[in-house]
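Long-time lurker. I teach an intro course on protein structure, and each term I like to show students one example going from raw sequence to a predicted 3D structure in token notation. This year I'd like something fresh instead of my usual example. Would anyone be willing to generate the tokens for the chain below so I can use it in lecture? Attribution to the forum is fine with me.
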Amino acid sequence: MRLNPKIVEITKSGSFIVFLFLAWELACVIFHISPIVLPRPSAILSTLITEMPALWPHILQTLATTMVGFLLGVVIGVALGVFVGMSRTAYNTAYPLLVGFSSVPKVAVVPIFVLWFGSGTVPAILTALTTCIFPIVVNVATGLATTEPEMEDVLKALGATRSQVLRNVSLPRAMPYFFASLKVAVTLAFVGTVLSETVAANRGIGTVMMMATSSFDVPLAFAGLFALAFLGIVLYAVFALLEQRVCGWANRKQDFAVV
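-- Reply from a regular --
Happy to contribute to a lecture. Here you go:
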């Protein structure tokens, strides 16, 4: 009986992850690594379960802040991507500015957001937005720019307007690029949120991690990292599923070689 390659791949991936955590646990025991330096996975899991009632409001705060910043980044990023991708002049003008802004470390702009809006949720939302917007703009603009000119010429010859070409050909053609950017951007949005929470907030996983490290509660800090990793994986999986449903036609290679 031939097993489903996807099930085999998932089983292999899960086994490898379990092996990594077991190796981590054994290394901490064999080499007598202090919990202050590197806590064992069992201690982190125990802390995560024990402290979950206290962590839950902070997890929800970070998730809500990240999603607001991410959604705003998607709206602005798509608009800028369409603007940049449809005009050579806009591309030559706006693209260098976007690259320059993306190159600025976001930790440098957090104090500016705090100066403008005070500490709290707003700087975290803006940091998440500015962190995730660049890949969305680049991928949407790239998707629009790679539309076959022959197809555009045919539609224009049939009397289609520029907006009709954009709606019926260019945007659908850019969907794979768009969803690829979403999977990257949502993880970057978490980075921006936690970065701002560690600097200027009194709620969120970033705040919990700062308080934990200041009191040398390293297992709690790692528990916060695990919670962030879990949220990132879940949202990545959600957008991967949406990508498969919306633009599965672009995935021509369905099966990978099973080693």
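Some talking points for your students: The chain has ten helices and no strands. The chain has a mean pLDDT of 85.
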